[in-house]
Design goal:
Oligomer: single chain
CATH class of the largest domain: Mainly Beta
Strand content: over 45%
Number of domains: 2
Length: 222
């Protein structure tokens, strides 16, 4: 009987989250504080404690890049660096990001070794939601910035662009998260500097360009 009571007590310590007002058998009172529960079983209480909201986030990502409207460009790769700041424990924050994508041309253009390279430096608002228990989080953002295009037969040019998307991450330890992100870019909205971008095949002015990125990322949160 004594062994059964000890087993039930350990199970309750694991299953019941700290600070819910519940107490395991053998505690002084059902309303014991979180600090008292931690003192009784510090290892278990700390292991299952929810993650605290961080103020500063730094992420590095690498994955798939696709120009959706251009059949002459293959699937490519993209990488980005993202920094975000959240005041206090707020869900709303601000982010800055820098990205670069590389897509090779297909067909005869690909045989010539031509490559479409684009990058951007963007700023904007971001929001996040941390799941119950702190084990996962969802985020979304909308950014505006300058987009650099490095065409194979023209000078570099900068244009205005926007990006929006979302991400899902899981916690590895309190400060380290891993996840996957989906972000959609629309750029060449209007020229900022450099020559107007021309189509490499017809040498006609190019309109709005879109790019879809699906990278995996590592996030450091402090």
């Amino acid at each position: 009987m004594r062994s059964a009571k000890i087993l039930i007590s350990l199970l309750l310590l694991v299953v019941l989250p700290a600070g819910t007002g519940w107490a395991a058998p053998g505690s002084d009172a059902p309303g014991d504080s979180e600090s008292e529960s931690s003192a009784d079983a510090p290892g278990l209480a700390r292991r299952f404690a929810p993650a605290k909201a961080s103020h500063f986030v730094a992420e590095i990502a690498f994955g798939l890049s696709s120009l959706l409207d251009d059949p002459d460009v293959k699937q490519g790769i993209a990488g980005d660096l993202r920094i975000a700041w959240f005041p206090g424990a707020a869900s709303f924050g601000l982010e800055a990001s820098a990205a670069v994508a590389k897509n090779d041309y297909s067909g005869s253009l690909g045989q010539a070794g031509t490559t479409f390279i684009a990058g951007n430096i963007s700023f904007g608002p971001t929001m996040r939601w941390i799941g119950a228990g702190g084990g996962y989080q969802l985020s979304t953002s909308f950014t505006l910035g300058g987009y650099l295009v490095v065409p194979p037969v023209q000078e570099w040019s900068w244009s205005l662009g926007v990006a929006f998307g979302g991400a899902c991450a899981v916690r590895v330890v309190s400060w380290l998260w891993v996840g996957v992100r989906l972000r959609y870019h629309l750029f060449n909205l209007t020229s900022l500097s450099g020559p107007a971008l021309l189509d490499i095949k017809g040498f006609q002015k190019v309109g709005v360009i879109d790019r879809l990125e699906i990278p995996f990322y590592v996030s450091l949160q402090f």
